């Protein structure tokens, strides 16, 4: 089965850089995705790493290392609107289910 | 142009009642899902349909019954509601399965069972 662990909460100030880690126990998956969810809102897709390495999309970057069973989401030039919950997720190869991590609540302060 | 829509957005009901949540997507996707998000924000898949066919059926009480009349719609009917069913239910859709498979979520239905 799959389990993905994330820190429950991270705080930072506007303009800073923050890294949200995701460590996983898995028996096989396609790749690592990240989703953002604002309070009261729906999860929205941010990024996908199918291969090891860094993927950059604007202020957000995501990293995967399969050998270390580890990934992270890096948010740069933080803005107040980045305050949200962030979830890593993997798609299990055998069941095709998208398994979500425990979620990290990011609070950005002025 | 709403991509994935759900109704109702809020649902407050008494224990023992039966209720339904409707979901529609206009993205032309083949696969639709129901997720449950509990009070700790843990997001877990319940069901998945691909072209109207059930492909994922998690360990969910059989009081929960999904129905897909066509590939653009996936409804969720819940019988004999219990207090523990209180949660936010999200519908989602994606094109195909496997790999990147970006999922598009509806706005959610907050169910409160009293």
Q: How far is the N terminus from the C terminus of chain B?
A: 34 Å
Count of helical regions of chain B: 0
The total strand number of chain A stands at 11
Could you give the distance between the termini of chain A? Answer: 40 Å
What is the element string of chain A, with H for helices and E for strands? EEEEEEEEEEE
Please work out how many helical segments of chain A DSSP would assign.
0
What fraction, in percent, of the residue positions of chain B are helical? under 10%
Coarse shape of chain A: globular
Low-confidence stretches of chain B: none
Structural class of chain A: mainly beta
Mean pLDDT of chain B: 93
Class based on secondary structure composition and strand pairing of chain B: mainly beta
Oligomeric form of this entry?
A: heterodimer
Number of strands of chain B: 11
How big is the Rg of chain B? 13 Å
Most extensive chain interface and residues per partner: A-B, 24 and 23 residues
Order of SSEs of chain B = EEEEEEEEEEE
Give a structural overview.
The complex is a heterodimer of chains A (110) and B (114). Chain A has 110 residues and is mainly β. In chain A, 0% of the residues lie in helices and 60% in strands. In chain A, strands 2, 4, 5, 9, 10 and 11 form a 6-stranded mixed sheet that branches. Chain A has a 5-stranded antiparallel sheet with strand order 1-3-8-7-6, with no helix packed on it. In chain A, strand 9 and strand 10 (98-100) form a beta hairpin. Chain A is globular. The model of chain A has no long low-confidence stretch (mean pLDDT 94). The model of chain B has no long low-confidence stretch (mean pLDDT 93). Chain B is mainly β and 114 residues long. Chain B is built from no helices and 11 strands. In chain B, strands 2, 4, 5, 6, 9, 10 and 11 form a 7-stranded mixed sheet that branches. In chain B, 0% of the residues lie in helices and 55% in strands. Chain B has strands spanning 4-7, 10-13, 19-25, 31-37, 43-50, 53-57, 64-70, 73-78, 87-94, 104-105, 109-113.
């Amino acid at each position: 089965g799959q389990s993905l662990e994330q820190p429950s909460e991270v705080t930072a100030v506007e303009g800073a850089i923050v890294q949200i880690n995701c460590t996983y126990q898995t028996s096989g998956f396609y790749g690592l995705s990240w989703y953002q969810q604002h309070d009261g809102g729906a999860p929205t897709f941010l990024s996908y790493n199918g291969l090891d390495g860094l993927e950059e999309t604007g202020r957000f970057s995501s990293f995967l290392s399969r050998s270390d069973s580890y990934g992270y989401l890096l948010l740069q030039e933080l803005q107040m609107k980045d305050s949200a919950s962030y979830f890593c997720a993997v798609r299990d190869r055998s069941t095709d289910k998208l398994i979500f991590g425990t979620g990290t609540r990011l609070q950005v302060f002025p | 142009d709403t991509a994935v829509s759900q109704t109702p957005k809020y649902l407050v009901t008494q224990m023992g009642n039966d209720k339904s949540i409707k979901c529609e997507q206009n993205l032309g996707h083949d696969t639709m899902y129901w997720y449950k998000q509990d009070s700790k924000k843990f997001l877990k898949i319940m069901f998945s349909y691909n072209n109207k066919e059930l492909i994922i059926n998690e360990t969910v009480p059989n009081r929960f019954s999904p129905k897909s009349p066509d590939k653009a719609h996936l409804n969720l009917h819940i019988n004999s509601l219990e207090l523990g069913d209180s949660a936010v239910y999200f519908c989602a859709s994606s094109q195909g399965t496997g790999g990147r498979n970006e999922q598009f979520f509806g706005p959610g239905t907050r169910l409160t069972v009293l």
